Each structure stands twice: as structure tokens, then as C-alpha cells.
Amino acid sequence: MMRESKRKRLEAKGWRVGSTGEFLNLSPEEAAYVELKIKLASKLREWRARRRLTQGDLARRVKSSQSRVAKMEAGDPSVSLDLLIRTLLALGASSREIARIITSRRRATAA
Amino acid sequence: MMRESKRKRLEAKGWRVGSTGEFLNLSPEEAAYVELKIKLASKLREWRARRRLTQGDLARRVKSSQSRVAKMEAGDPSVSLDLLIRTLLALGASSREIARIITSRRRATAA
DNA sequence: TGACGATATGTCGGATGTGACATATACTCC
DNA sequence: GGAGTATATGTCACATCCGACATATCGTCA
After folding, report:
1. Could you confirm whether domain A26-103 is CATH 1.10.260.40?
2. Would you state the pLDDT for residue A28?
3. Does B19 contact A at CB distance below 8 Å?
4. What distance in Å separates the CA atoms of residue B22 and residue B5, rounded to the nearest whole number?
5. Which chain D positions have some atom within 7 A of a protein CB?
6. Taking a C-beta distance cutoff of 8 angstroms, is the pair B88, A28 a contact?
7. Chain A within 8 Å of B65 (Cβ-Cβ)?
8. pLDDT digits over B51-65, tens only?
9. Which CATH superfamily is domain B25-103 in?
10. Domain spans in chain A, listed from the N-terminal domain onward
11. Is the CB of B110 under 7 A from strand D?
12. Nearest to B84 by CA among B52, B111, B58, B103
């Protein structure tokens, strides 16, 4: 399956700003994939912020590294849905909560 | 993150039969991960069966191969959540539908 | 200003995942 | 029994992902 090729063009910049660029040349499923990732990513950051943990703390908890956590929270292309979901599960999220995250409407990022 | 190590012991056989072996030595999040995978996997098979497509047909549609589709539908350890979700998205599933699958209660496999 | 703590970005070696192919198994229908 | 079609299983080369490390950027406090 393709995907990463097109993704690359994205990460050059942008796509965190608006509403996840359908205005860019993403196929519907690519857009949906990125949307999903961003939702999980920002939920993860939210979770961590609420408990006032540093990325390093969180990393230790799920046996990862600070840099990878940063990438997770940024929805970096090098992070898979798989890792995001496993991480949330490792933090005790239930499948119901995961589902809620997935259906949630994404709140505007910054102003 | 560990995971695959333990998983290996599973695939020797079993784990498709009962209720996804908490009776095996899986940590809660590992169990949840496998559960999730199985739900998506069986939904995929269901989707395909309903349209009376062969695995080969489906594979062509999502640019994969018959064997990988078989593995996806079997929830094989070599298949990531990522691939399962991307495939469902590629088949036109909405995030809402994905979420529904995730929360769904799994029906008994065979008798 | 500088020092400090937190987060971001870049890179790399090794681990996992992926499509493809070969082959095995299963199930008709003749 | 064989032929034909579908699905399962094993393997492999190549791609992608991962944790780790180094380093850069940012924010705050003195």
C-alpha cells in the first residue's frame, strides 16, 4: 500500500494548522487516516497534560523514549496508529474510550 | 515495546477459539490489543462475504495480496492494527463505523 | 544574559510489517 | 478420482517503524 510517499510532501510543513488538509491532494482514506492519527495523538497529549507528566515520564511508563512520545503527540508520519493505540491501551484506556476518541470531533489546534 | 515475544507463544495454536485467552498469560493491554484486532479482522471478513468477493478481489481493491488478506482476516500476529484500519478505510468505512466495530461485542467464532 | 527543564527534530541500527510468491489444504462439481 | 476455485500457511526481500541517542528550540526564572 502506498501512503508514505504522499505523506512526505505533507510533513514538509502545514497540515497541523487547518482541518487536516483535504485541500491538499489526499485521497479520502488518507485524510481519514491522518485525522484518526491526530485525534489519538492529541488525546494522548491531553491525557499526559492532565496528570502533569513530562514526555519523559510517560515514555518511561510505556517503555518508550521522550523523542518518540513527542512524535506520537505530534502525529508524526513515523508513528503508526498501531503504536498510538497500544500506548493508550497501555495507559489503561478501554476500547470504549478508544472508540470515543475516534468518533470525537477534533477541536481546533491553537488559534 | 515488547509484545511480539509473548504473541508468538499464542499463534502456535488456539486463541481463536474461546474468548481471546485472558486465560493465557496476556497482560490486560495485550489482551485488549488482540481483542481489537480480532474485531476488526472479523468485520473485514464479514464485509467481504456480504459482497461475495474473494480474498483476491479484495486484495486487488486495496492493493495487497490474497495471502495478506487471509492473514488480516485471521488476525495474524504479522498484521498490524494499522493495516487493518487502513484497509477498512480504503473500503470506505467512516471513523464512526470503525469506532462502532471497536466497541462491538464480539460474536462467538463458529460453534 | 545564562542556566535549567521540557519539548522538538534528526538520525541510526535493529525490529516488525508488508506484498508477493509458492504451496498446501479445503470444498465443490463432474 | 481429477479439475477448478477459494482460502490458509510459509517464506523472503524490501519497506517501514521503533527506541535510543544527540542536539536544537522554547519558556521561565534569576
Report:
1. yes
2. 84
3. no
4. 17
5. 5-11, 15-22
6. no
7. no
8. 999 999 999 999 999
9. lambda repressor-like DNA-binding domains (1.10.260.40)
10. 26-103
11. no
12. B58
Of B31-40, B92-101, B102-111, minimum mean pLDDT range = B102-111
Which residues of chain A (69-88) touch nucleic strand D at CB < 7 A?
77-80, 82-83
Task: Using pLDDT thresholds of 50, 70 and 90, give the confidence band for residue A20.
Answer: low
Rounded (5°) CA angle A35-B4-B90:
30
Amino acid at A22: E
Average pLDDT over residues A102-110: 75
- Reference B2, options A64, A60, A58, A48; nearest CA is A64
Residue type present at position B105: R
Per the CB < 8 Å rule, is B36 touching A95?
Answer: yes
Q: Which three cell numbers stand for residue B53?
A: 468477493
**Nucleotide closest to B59 measured between CA and C1':** C19
Residue A50 burial (C-beta neighbours within 10 Å; 0-12, 13-18, 19+): exposed
Residue B96 contacts A where some CB pair is shorter than 8 Å: yes
Query: Could you tell me which of A43, A35, A91, A63 has the C-alpha nearest to residue B32?
Result: A91
**Rounded distance in angstroms from the CA atom of residue B49 to the C1' atom of nucleotide D6:** 12
